[in-house]
Specification:
The structure is a single chain. It contains 1 helix and 8 strands; from the N terminus they run αββββββββ. The chain is 11% helix and 51% strand. The termini are far apart.
Length: 206
């Protein structure tokens, strides 16, 4: 089985497990004090360093496999909850402005809708949220890092956020800050092109 097929099957199994878990959590109501305020706004800042590994192979999720590049990202983003999808999920939209430095220097802006999974068994101790988003990214110039002559490309967010009760309106998150040609959707090349920045950030909810 090819790596793309394995990754697709794994993603489907995770999604099915989450859906199946809904009834299992029917007894569980996350306490209000462990969740962001009802207004649904948040601002976050994260930073990270580029790696050679890709999302397509799954190696970008394995820190022991990472080989770093001399590129660094610092990003600030504004996020808004737009819809409570169902009891365990919400829809957000996020706008980010980023600065990439190192071997090259340039700016990036992206808008990325995201869907979250909000219910985990340990939420009464540390409120945990997983998020996945796909959107549009634009850079101030074409870059050697992306390995393609494109400013407009796809953005992706793969994120895990934690918020202990004692942190009030603050949370911490780790994410893959991803930009790619989406397998040929942007540009003429079918091979995967783009960049991945494993990042760590802080977010304030208001």
């Amino acid at each position: 089985m090819g790596s793309d097929m394995k990754l697709g099957v794994s993603a489907c199994l995770v999604a099915l497990a989450m859906l199946a878990a809904g009834p299992a959590y029917s007894w569980y109501e996350p306490a209000d004090e462990y969740h962001a305020p009802a207004n649904g706004w948040a601002v976050g800042v994260h930073s990270g360093r580029a790696i050679k590994e890709s999302l397509r192979t799954g190696e970008a999720f394995l820190p022991t496999e990472w080989e770093f590049k001399d590129y660094y990202v610092t990003s600030i983003g504004l996020r808004k909850e737009v819809w409570q999808l169902w009891r365990h999920s919400r829809i957000f939209t996020e706008m980010n402005v980023s600065w990439i430095s190192g071997d090259e220097e340039y700016a990036e802006a992206f808008v990325t809708p995201t869907i979250t999974w909000d219910t985990f068994p340990w939420d009464h101790v540390v409120d945990t949220t997983a998020a996945l988003g796909v959107g549009l990214s634009y850079t101030s110039k074409t870059t050697e890092l992306d390995e393609i002559d494109q400013r407009w490309m796809a953005s992706m967010i793969v994120e895990l956020e934690v918020q202990p009760a004692s942190w009030d309106s603050w949370s911490m998150y780790t994410r893959i800050h991803h930009r790619s040609n989406a397998g040929g959707v942007f540009g003429d090349e079918n091979d995967a092109k783009g960049s991945n920045f494993p990042s760590l950030g802080l977010r304030y909810h208001f």
